[in-house]
Design a protein that fits this description.
Blueprint (H helix, E strand, L loop, with lengths): L5 E2 L2 E2 L8 H14 L3 H15 L5 E3 L1 H7 L2 E6 L9 H15 L3 E6 L3 H12 L3 E7 H6 L1 H9 L3 E5 L6 H15 L3 E3 L10 H9 L1 H14 L5 E5 L4 H7 L8 E9 L7 H4 L1 E5 L2 E5 L24 H8 L4 E6 H15 L5 H17 L2 E6 L7 H8 L2
Parallel strand pairs: 4-14, 5-6, 5-8, 6-7, 9-10, 9-14, 10-13
Antiparallel strand pairs: 1-2, 3-4, 11-12
Helix pairs in contact: 2-4, 4-5, 4-9, 5-7, 9-11, 10-11, 14-15
EC number: 4.2.1.20
Pfam family, one: PALP
Cofactor: pyridoxal 5'-phosphate
């Protein structure tokens, strides 16, 4: 395996031998096509005219005035489908088309990646099947309906904790048996090489746009960039353009309900799952612990290997926000700015408010998705 599959000691390709050929096929196809002018032109066309890029960098005036900093929101919630996920699904579905695949499979937690995959599958006429933990199917009924409406088949997974981890397991089992005709469209910067690199590259458009926009708005780079971290795709997407700069990068993990959490970088240990070496929430025997977050998209026991590397090299800091604080931020952004954020994004908003009150400055928050999908969860939690 090439050194490109590692971020320091993290990452790699820890998979059954049967998966090595499709991963090598994918790596070679991506390396061949990623700088191809016609591929880049076609991808850019779809991102602009179908997904709705570039997204605005919005100055949140009311939030800023209340908390004493300049807070900007990168509005990925305004993309088609309501989340940043579409950047990656269009990229990978187009790659699958160039590879001659006729079918795509995916896993999803909050449903945002599933909806974005269903859109891309429909767009490129690819048969689409999506694995989803049975608990998430119940939590995200609206997104399940949207996926079906878009022509995808949703397959509930009843094993394990019935959440994202188990959906990934089932999708990998499917791919073992079907890779000759099927592309596994992973939705975050997780999994065996080359997936963490491919997903990061397709999501890095967020950060490069932000960099250009904040320089135009402020004449300088931001002091701090904040993003929520489950698997970590939206965070890597915005961090990547600032890694070489003197900009503070903060990832926000889900602190859950005080009993269980999904904060693998703050509470986990090094281990191997889903084909990669990274940090995971494990018991003393190395088995994955049950996780919890009010935000289904953060409810994963591990994190992408590049985040593990950024943490260990101290290039990025990773903090924890509880369900309660995320809910408070969900309400506050809705009332102050007229923007209902996804509960995932509300974790990042909560920490940005804390930073603003502590030290001010220019803060950019990646608003990774909109909160329509979370309305019923929030209603129940808030007793509204």
């Amino acid at each position: 395996m090439s050194s490109k599959g590692r971020f320091g000691e993290f990452g790699g390709r820890f998979v059954p031998e049967v998966l090595i050929p499709p991963l090598e096929e994918l790596e070679m196809a991506y390396e061949k096509i990623k700088d191809d002018k016609s591929f880049k032109k076609e991808l850019d066309c779809y991102l602009r005219n179908y997904a709705g890029r570039p997204t605005p960098l919005y100055y949140a005036k009311n939030l800023s005035e209340k908390h004493g900093a300049k807070i900007y929101l990168k509005r990925e919630d305004l993309l088609h489908g309501g989340a940043h996920k579409i950047n990656n699904t269009i990229g990978q579905a187009l790659l699958a088309k160039y590879m001659g695949k006729k079918r795509i499979i995916a896993e999803t937690g909050a449903g945002q990646h599933g909806v974005a995959t269903a859109m891309a599958g429909s767009l490129f006429k690819l048969k689409t099947e999506i694995y989803m933990g049975a608990e998430d199917v119940e939590r995200q009924k609206t997104n399940v309906f949207r996926m079906k409406l878009l022509g995808a088949e949703v397959i509930p997974v009843n094993s394990g904790t019935r959440t994202l981890k188990d959906a990934i397991n089932e999708a990998l089992r499917d791919w073992v048996a079907s890779f000759e005709s099927t592309h596994y469209l992973i939705g975050s910067v997780v999994g065996p090489h080359p997936y963490p690199t491919i997903v990061r590259d397709f999501q890095s458009v967020i950060g490069f746009e932000t960099r250009e926009q904040i320089l135009k708005a402020e004449g300088s780079l931001p002091d701090t960039v904040v993003a929520c971290v489950g698997g970590g795709s939206n965070a890597i997407g915005i961090f990547h353009a600032f890694v070489e700069d003197d900009v503070e990068l903060i990832g926000v993990e889900a602190g859950g309900n005080g009993v269980n959490n999904s904060a693998s970088l703050n509470s986990g240990d090094k281990g191997v799952l889903h084909g990669m070496l990274s940090y995971f929430l494990q018991n003393e025997d190395g088995q994955m612990k049950d996780t919890h977050s009010i935000a289904a998209g953060l409810d994963y026991p591990g994190v992408g290997p590049e985040h593990a590397y950024l943490r260990d090299t101290k290039r990025a800091e990773y903090v924890v926000v509880s369900d309660e604080d995320a809910l408070n931020a969900f309400v506050e952004l809705s009332k102050l700015e007229g923007i209902i954020p996804a509960l995932e994004s509300a974790h990042a908003i909560a920490h940005a408010i804390k930073i603003a009150e502590e030290r001010g400055g220019i803060i950019v928050v990646n608003l990774s998705g909109r909160g329509d999908k979370d309305i019923f969860i929030a209603m129940e939690a808030l007793k509204a």
